């Protein structure tokens, strides 16, 4: 999957996090309400030939170059009072290995549930643990919790029916160290993304850890974010409010850019997400952030070859968007019209002379014709979005998507409303329902669904659909890879909706991305 090119960008959605402490509350209250987090987007030093089998010493020398950069970032973060730092997936060892060629890069990984261990203080307790020792010492040196990703190995016996032929399991592993260097826990990636070098554990790891400054964190990796286990189950069953998320994500627009899905997850579940992506723009890999349901502090840069450290102050108790139960938005004219359309009642407006009423059904009498175009390798059904205002509907199987919109000014760009209800089968297999308002790649209908990063068209709108799932992610980008936050999300009359007025720049994507986990 290729990434879109944008100008260098470090964005702050909402107020600067580091300015949040300026208030009349006491220092103790502020410290109880917020913690300081960091994520580092790392341009890793890669093996020049990942298919070649090298010695353990050669592998350690390569990984040391990446760990030296990690140390620089830990010390820079420590100067800012950071309490937890997250590093990306594949950041230490790299990628594109075979099962055999990655072996020299693997550390032995004892189970933290069975063994209490501080690798920095007990460096010779286990063999082949040099990377774990270095990470443990970095946590001590920085005085912070540290989350990193590495390859690990675990011997197995012939009596184990799942034991690979080479007599060992190999895992894509996240590790968590406390600020005193103790190995708190490990998470072994469950949903592998074309990773022939690694095994998926026989049972999914459901890993949480408690940090004294913030409470309970959950842990998962990259592709896991699109699946029920472990991501959703952690939030549903373990009262997790914060997620640490190492990733090596290749951007794919319009629906699955890295920062786009990170932010959508934070908003959908009302949690904080600390997401560290790897930085290889030529491979389409960039996009990290510290995301709360209401704010994001993020980085996406397809030009600068260097890594980037993000630091932000984060609420210990994240607050979500307003829903339908606690809002006065029904007093707004556009929202009143939206509610009328949903109920099938006439939509009436009063001017100086008389009251004008339009039946809701009349909005779609002169609707533009539908067409089909490929978006994210799926065959979407779409309608063009023409004119300064209107109500459009488009359906795919059992899903019908609606758009009620007004445009302050018209641009020459083509936009379309699309719907897809079906099994996605490329780069993973999973069932989705999607309602998407997208800017097309050009003037032709066949360009709707192409990758776009810049736009001028501004909309005030409601987007909604009759989704068959409760798990719906609001994907929302405007021009220049700028993350937008909806004004409101919620259910009305068995339809899920997103509402927004006052975009910060031209709209690239506004989508409701539903996952039907049970149908995957």
Automatic annotation (TrEMBL):
The keyword Transcription does not apply. Keywords: Glycoprotein, Hydrolase, Signal. Residues 49-333 form the CN hydrolase domain. Belongs to the carbon-nitrogen hydrolase superfamily. BTD/VNN family. InterPro entries: Biotinidase-like_euk, Biotinidase/VNN, C-N_Hydrolase, C-N_Hydrolase_sf, Vanin_C. It comes from the Eukaryota. It catalyses: biocytin + H2O = biotin + L-lysine. Gene3D superfamilies: Carbon-nitrogen hydrolase. This is Biotinidase. Catalytic release of biotin from biocytin, the product of biotin-dependent carboxylases degradation. The keyword DNA damage does not apply. PANTHER family: BIOTINIDASE, BIOTINIDASE-RELATED.
């Amino acid at each position: 999957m290729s990434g879109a090119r944008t100008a260098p960008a470090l964005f702050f959605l909402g107020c600067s996090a580091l300015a949040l402490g300026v208030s009349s509350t006491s220092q103790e209250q502020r410290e109880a309400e917020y913690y300081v987090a960091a994520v580092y987007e790392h341009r890793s030093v890669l093996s020049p030939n990942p298919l070649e089998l090298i010695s353990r010493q050669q592998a350690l020398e390569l990984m040391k170059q990446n760990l030296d950069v990690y140390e620089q970032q830990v010390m820079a973060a420590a100067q800012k009072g950071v309490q937890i730092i997250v590093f990306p997936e594949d950041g230490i060892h790299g990628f594109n290995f075979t099962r055999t060629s990655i072996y020299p890069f693997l550390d032995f990984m004892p189970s933290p549930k069975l063994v209490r261990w501080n690798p920095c203080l007990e460096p010779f307790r286990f063999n082949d643990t040099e990377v774990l020792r270095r990470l443990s010492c970095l946590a001590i040196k920085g005085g912070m919790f540290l989350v990193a990703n590495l390859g690990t190995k675990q011997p197995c016996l012939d009596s184990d029916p799942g034991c690979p032929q080479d007599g060992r399991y190999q895992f894509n592993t996240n590790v968590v160290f406390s600020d005193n260097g103790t190995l708190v826990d490990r998470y072994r990636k469950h949903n592998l993304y074309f990773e022939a070098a690694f095994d998926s554990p026989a049972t999914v790891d459901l890993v949480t850890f408690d940090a004294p400054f913030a409470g309970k964190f959950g842990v998962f990796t990259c592709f896991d974010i699109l699946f029920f286990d472990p991501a959703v189950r952690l939030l549903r069953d373990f009262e997790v409010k914060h997620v640490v998320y190492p990733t090596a994500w290749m951007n794919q627009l319009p629906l699955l850019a890295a920062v786009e899905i990170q932010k959508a997850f934070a908003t959908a579940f009302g949690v904080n997400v600390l997401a560290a992506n790897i930085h290889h723009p030529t491979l389409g890999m960039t996009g990290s952030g510290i995301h709360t349901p209401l704010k994001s502090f993020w980085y996406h840069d397809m030009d600068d070859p260097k890594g980037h450290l993000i630091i932000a102050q984060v609420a210990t108790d994240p607050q979500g968007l307003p829903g339908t139960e606690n809002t006065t938005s029904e007093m707004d004219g556009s929202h009143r019209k939206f509610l009328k359309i949903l109920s099938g009642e006439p939509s009436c407006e009063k001017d100086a002379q008389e009251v004008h009423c339009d039946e809701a059904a009349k909005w779609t009498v002169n609707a533009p014709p539908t067409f089909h175009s490929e978006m994210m390798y799926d065959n979407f059904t779409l309608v063009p979005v023409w004119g300064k205002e209107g109500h459009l509907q488009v359906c795919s199987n059992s899903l019908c998507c609606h758009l009620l919109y007004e445009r302050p000014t018209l641009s020459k760009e083509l936009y379309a409303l699309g719907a897809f209800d079906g099994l996605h089968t490329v780069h993973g297999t999973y069932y989705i329902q999607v309602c998407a308002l997208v800017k097309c790649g050009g003037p032709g209908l066949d360009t709707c669904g192409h990758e776009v990063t810049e736009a001028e068209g501004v909309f005030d709108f409601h987007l909604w659909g009759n989704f068959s799932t409760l798990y719906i992610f609001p994907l929302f980008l405007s021009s220049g890879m700028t993350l937008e936050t909806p004004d409101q999300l919620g259910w009305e009359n068995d339809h899920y909706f997103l509402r927004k007025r006052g975009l910060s720049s031209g709209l690239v994507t506004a989508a409701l991305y539903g996952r039907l986990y049970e149908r995957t």
